[in-house]
Design a protein that fits this description.
The protein is mainly alpha-helical. About 65% of the residues lie in helices and about 0% in strands. It has eleven helices and no strands. α4 crosses α8 and α9 packs across α10. The longest helix is centred in the first third of the chain and has 30 residues. The N terminus is likely disordered.
Length: about 230
């Protein structure tokens, strides 16, 4: 945590509490409840609807750091993206839920690696790269849909087959995963890390635009209004 939680915005506090419950259960090998994931997602959706993406991003970066900051940012960005392209409420929730759960596997990554203040070495990065499979294998969540699990496992896959863990290519990558991957990369670039400051949003978007062949060009273009205006 970065700041006094007593002053944390109520919606953000509720979302963070639900994320904490999810990660705590996963880290202890307990069953994850879909209710916690849904509650976290609904709080983010409500926050974006009430205050907009810009305020949500500012609040998250003010009060959170590390894995929680990233998950809260990714979910906010994904929800805003889905709303911007006029998804139905059910589809906004589906993408938001995939974003909420996408990094739950990190709960089983050793803390010295997860919380390392500097860049990871090659061995540490290999361990970190196991988190999508670990998250997927924590699939003992009642009623979780296969498409959400697909997002958990494949949010680091690229259209050209250069991603991980399964080196999927374009025909094998769902629309939900394509949207989630864009949201995940953007959030990672704009979040604060101990070894680098938050990247300006326009610079982060330029990096996405430079990933032609890895990300779907039409979706990156559609993401522009979210990335640059919120």
């Amino acid at each position: 945590q970065k700041s006094d939680l007593a002053s944390e915005p109520p919606g953000l506090a509720s979302a963070a509490a639900s994320f904490s419950s999810l990660f705590s259960a996963a880290g202890r090998g307990k069953q994850i409840t879909l209710a916690d994931a849904e509650n976290a997602t609904l709080e983010v959706i409500h926050g974006i609807k009430q205050k907009g993406l810009n305020a949500w991003l500012d609040d998250v970066r003010r009060y959170h750091e590390g894995t929680f900051q990233h998950c809260l940012l990714v979910t906010g960005v994904a929800v805003a993206f889905a709303m911007n392209i006029k998804f139905s409420d059910a589809d906004v929730m589906r993408l938001g839920l995939a974003a909420t759960l996408h990094d739950v596997g990190k709960a089983r990554i050793p803390l010295p690696i997860l919380d390392k203040p500097g860049r990871l070495d090659q061995n540490e990065q290999e361990i970190m790269n196991r988190h999508p499979v670990i998250g997927y294998e924590l699939k003992a969540i009642p009623d979780i849909s296969p498409e959400i699990l697909d997002g958990v496992r494949h949010h680091h896959e690229y259209l050209d087959g250069s991603g991980y863990p399964d080196r999927l290519t374009a025909p094998e990558i769902s629309d939900l995963v394509r949207l989630l991957t864009i949201s995940d990369i953007f959030a990672a670039l704009i979040e604060w890390r101990p070894y680098r400051p938050s990247m300006p949003r326009q610079d982060a978007y330029k990096i996405l635009c430079g990933m032609d062949g890895k990300l779907e060009k039409a979706l990156v273009k559609a993401f522009g209004s979210v990335a640059l205006k919120g």
